[in-house]
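Example 282, ligand adenosine-5'-triphosphate.
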Amino acid sequence: MVLKVSGLRRAFGPVTILDKFNLEVREGEAVALTGRNGAGKSTLLRCLVGADKPDDGTIEVNGTKLTESAVEIRRDMATVIDDLDFFPDLSVVEHLDLLARAHGLSDPEPVVDEILHEVQLIPQSGQLPGTLSSGQRRRLALATAFVRPRKLLILDEPEQRLDTEGIAWLSGRLKEERENGLAIVFASHEPSLVNTVATRILHLGAARAGEPLAPTRDESLAEPSLTPEDVVAGTPTTAEPGGQQPAQKTTQKQPAKKPRPSQGRKPKTPNQRSTANQRRNR
Ligand SMILES: Nc1ncnc2c1ncn2[C@@H]1O[C@H](COP(=O)(O)OP(=O)(O)OP(=O)(O)O)[C@@H](O)[C@H]1O
């Protein structure tokens, strides 16, 4: 079990957002959190990554209880909760290099160059985050999750500000990560992303002031094959929980089964050369 949440409770004043909330996520499972604005998706994710403190309950990652000092958890958990947390003085490529090195990659450059190519930020690799467009900042935030080892990936509306092509890329990338054994929990309002990536959908419904907490609906999918209409309407599907078998355990990105845009670049493209030059000029 990669993630185990037991009896989680979080209330703000008189409004209970989560109560007696349980969740188990195994390797190779992708759980999509859906529900209306204010349903509690971000609150749950913030608790999972340690950015918010639940009023009650426990969160375990690979058997280790989440505490502020749980280094093992930070090592295993990649997160994209928002895209505002960048060092203003570090360039795009420097951010990714730093993160990869901090997580133990001795030679991060090939990994960093590949993900830069994948998120189409090679032309911007020498820019500071403040000079990126909002969609490019989101792409950088997503790239930070893919340059480091990971067993659990937590994402809050990762589709935000991505263009259509970006959402298609993200859907494919997350599906591939899930098939390679990564456990994923993500909140999304994008049916195509949920449809492609999720093996389970948790439809949250927090209480409004003075109303009882709405039940959480858990829909497990044998194959993530809902139509967008199903996802929006929350149509129940058939499979048992855990029906999706993990292909293999992975802590780092495995070689892709299908060619990615960044593969087969030979020799170095002008864009790659510009990345290398930007590295040299730093
Ligand atoms: N620090 C806080 N203090 C008071 N209320 C809060 C706080 N954080 C969140 N809330 C409330 O908790 C509820 C759940 O918010 P949350 O951000 O988790 O919703 P969400 O499902 O992620 O919504 P959205 O789809 O709009 O992103 C909202 O009513 C919000 O106003």
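Summary: Strands lie at 3-12, 15-25, 30-34, 56-61, 64-65, 77-80, 152-156, 183-187, 200-203, 217-220.
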